[in-house]
Design goal:
heterodimer, A: about 30 residues, mainly alpha, rod-shaped, B: about 220 residues, 9 helices, about 0% strand
Chain lengths: ~30, ~220
């Protein structure tokens, strides 16, 4: 199960990062 | 390598996600600059494009519809059935199931998740954790689509010497709803048709399919 947690974390971090990145680009008006 | 094999499905999809995203950035950049030249505007660098709201809104509008689709699928299959579909429960089994079926209360196993055994609010929350997380991602990506989409839309508006919109105005614009609904309709079609196709069609070896020899009348994937 520990090895699966790594994949879960990769997805979770990637999803949150891309959403945050998109919001920031919009908020700063890029 | 054991780790790669154990996680091959998730890793495969993550790899093609990155590949598609990079390819999308390249062709999106090319398309953006073509459009700029057609409008006698200045072209931009690749880096400027991937840090633009124009790129962000294109990614987010697709993400939100995918998360909406899976969220709806997870919830709709609790209450709706499709007779004969591997994706459905048997007619008559609609609903959230008994504690016995769900391995809750006195039916938990020693290795059940901690919050499934905890009872009260923690089990109630954990029982809906898929819906909660998927809905949160859907709403966050939809909001990101609106925020980045407005900037992209306003850039075109200013280019055409027309008025820029506030976020509130953009939420009521045809651009926002066109981007939203063009993605939703395709997701709903794909899910609906897959649920029905799974009655009559088979894919040998796939858990998304009934066994090849299973009768059309069999509902559910475990035969």
């Amino acid at each position: 199960v520990t090895s699966v947690r790594v994949v879960f974390a990769i997805y979770a971090v990637f999803i949150v990062a891309v959403i945050a990145y998109s919001i920031v680009l919009g908020v700063v008006g890029q | 390598m054991r780790w790669v094999r154990d996680n091959s499905l998730s890793l495969f999809f993550f790899a093609i996600l990155l590949a598609a995203l990079v390819a999308m950035a390249f062709v999106g950049h090319s398309g953006f600059n073509h459009d700029q030249l057609a409008h006698s505007g200045a072209t931009i660098s690749f880096w400027r494009y991937v840090t633009s709201s124009s790129f962000a809104v294109d990614v987010m509008e697709n993400w939100q519809s995918e998360y909406l689709q899976f969220t709806l699928y997870a919830v709709a299959t609790v209450w709706f059935v499709q007779r004969g579909s591997s994706e459905s429960k048997e007619p008559g089994e609609e609903g959230t199931g008994s504690d016995e079926e769900q391995l809750l209360g006195e039916h938990t196993k020693p290795n059940s998740p901690k919050w499934a055994k905890a009872g009260a609010w923690r089990t109630a929350l954990y029982s809906r954790s898929m819906l909660i997380v998927m809905t949160t991602i859907w709403l966050a990506t939809w909001a990101a689509q609106a925020i980045a989409g407005r900037i992209d839309y306003n850039a075109a508006q200013l280019d055409h010497r027309e008025a820029a919109l506030s976020l509130w105005q953009y939420l009521g614009s045809s651009d926002f709803w066109d981007r939203t609904l063009q993605n939703w309709q395709s997701e709903f079609l794909a899910v609906g048709s897959f649920a029905v196709f799974a009655v009559f069609l088979r894919q040998r070896g796939s858990p998304e399919s009934k066994p090849v020899g299973a009768p059309h009348s069999t509902t559910g994937s475990d035969v």
